[in-house]
Amino acid sequence: MPYANELDALTSLLKQHPTWGAIKPEYAARMRIQNKFKTGLDIAKYTAKIMREDMANYDQDSSKYTQSLGCWHGFIGQQKMISIKKHFGSTERKYLYLSGWMVAALRSQFGPLPDQSMHEKTAVPDLITELYTFLRQADAWELNHLFRDLEAAQEAGDKQQAQAIQASIDQHQTHVVPIIADIDAGFGNDEATYLLAKKMIEAGACCIQLENQVSDEKQCGHQDGKVTVPHADFLSKINAVRLAFLELGVDDGVIVARTDSLGAGLTKQIAVTNEPGDLGDQYNSFIDGDIIHNADDINNGDVVIKQNGQLVKPKRLASGLFQFKEGSGEDRVVMDCIASLQHGADLLWIETEKPHIGQIAAMVNRIRQQVPNAKLVYNNSPSFNWTLNFRQQVYDAWAAEGKEVSAYDRARLMSADYDDSELSQLADQWMANFQRESAREAGIFHHLITLPTYHTAALSTDNLAKGYFGEQGMLAYVKDVQRKEIREGIATVKHQDMAGSNIGDDHKEFFAGEAALKAGGKDNTMGQFENV
């Protein structure tokens, strides 16, 4: 609601309560405007609508793909969105990603853990709540400055300036954006998946990503030993998440169905099948095994299934797991994706072993033969060696064209010796264009990097520690941190303000009037940055 309307409504309300005379309607209206979202469900409903609109726009124009970065702390997510607004003027088509990998590695009370669903499941909704708390605080922080400017313009009698600032307040774009939230394999059975999904939605998640691995054998998508489940098991969890959305009134909540089948060579179960050609039968058709010719081929404890009209003894490992046929990964991925989209999922996630547009497009094109509007969420993973992958892709393309490549050692293309070469420069161009081209050619609606801020935190800390504890001393901080903050307009240079000091001061005045004891006086050292 516009500020003027809020002001009128609260002026009328306060007149009905004579004992509330100390409350100024301007203050109450301001506080309402600065707190746009009252609950996590308000956020989930708001962001689900945004995401659905973005999906529809992408279907019409593939250049309108969306992006996100994984954030492991509310402050990181907040600063990301502040940066986006500063540099691009809008948060449109920019999301946050909540990475299960980073929750495991950075947010578990057990300490750093691998991405194997061993961390506390409540850490996931807790991080969603934290992220949105910081994003809402960014709204309050930005609007607080606008309201201070409005007061100054009004006190100066500058009506034109006051009108312009009030228009900025009324048209303010929130820092609150959709979060794609990783629920791993559901942390248990269907009921466990439903209960956790509810907590995530109540915290604000409009989009939940679910994977088709066994929940108690779950591995990171870039680790070995992945074990998938039959489609019936996975689809029941999709139903559980959908019902959680519907129960909470987020009717257009988004479900991302992730398949790890490309790199998963094992299954824990043989699927239930009722007739030839059903999903269970299709799943079992990929299980590796030996054809049984007579009863003597069956040993004690062997399992026997009917596969393509023949009796087959599936190959079972000492762990009890069954093995899929070599080279069946892509076919299983296509089957997984079609089944998921036909049974309630909205978007797909195909975990691949390298960032190759041709490979991704080949699978998506097969999926689109049955589901024409199939779209992907794609992991631009730090687990890929992007430099080596793209240099090798250029090398292979040149070799196929008959271009001379003898000056390059394909296995050593990561070497800095090649950094200034024609091949490496072209590889960098391919990387820069990867998201645009794969959005057009491979149906990728959303590009994300799962754990970039894990790496940036480590790299920036290493650089500071190397200089500060070395010869540079304090210069390392001043030159590479504070001076850059000032010159690049990073809001955290005024860290007291960023943490809410000015908001708190204004609230003190709202509460206590002239008796308020404020922190932002002449002795606050943040005054040294007043004009930067």
UniProtKB/TrEMBL annotation:
Keywords: Lyase, Magnesium, Metal-binding. The active site is at residue 220. One of its GO terms (biological process) is carboxylic acid metabolic process. It comes from the Bacteria. CDD domains: ICL_PEPM. GO terms for molecular function: isocitrate lyase activity; metal ion binding. Can also use Mn(2+) ion. Signal peptide: none annotated. It holds the Pfam family ICL. Its cofactor is Mg(2+). Mg(2+) binds at residue 182. It catalyses: D-threo-isocitrate = glyoxylate + succinate. This is Isocitrate lyase. It comes from Oceanisphaera avium.
